Description:
With 47 residues, this protein is mainly alpha-helical. 51% of the residues lie in helices and 9% in strands. It has helices spanning 14-19, 23-40; strands at 2-3, 6-7.
Amino acid sequence: MERKGIKYMPTWHPAALLRDETKKVDFIQDLTLVVHEETFGRNSQQD
């Protein structure tokens, strides 16, 4: 999601991750996507 040139990635609150271990899978996927986009750019995902 992007607004006014700032990218946002909604994800779980840290306290939710501590209470429910199953949410960590989603969080890791979100974090991996953010790192990939910052490293390689959005265009590289359209392979």
